[in-house]
Model the fold of this input.
Amino acid sequence: MSNGSNFKLDNDIWEWIENGKEYFKSELIKEINKEHILYGIEVKEIARREDCDDVLFLLLDGSNRYAVVHLTWSGKSEDSKNYPRTRLYDTLGEVIKNEY
Done:
């Protein structure tokens, strides 16, 4: 799969999100509370894993970092700042190295 850039997903468990419906972003916004690391940061959904609930987001805060978030699908704000579980990466290369 490819998103039109020089980057390709060679791992079939990740699927590009290209529909623009922001379905996963909407769930993320529901789940994070004011203490969560992503609270108040605009994001763009990039890809999702087909074998679990992990979603790759690009942070639109000017840092160009990435977040892999394990959504809980609770449909509500989580009680803990640690949920949904989130792993931050400075580059797409770090995402590929650690998540693929």
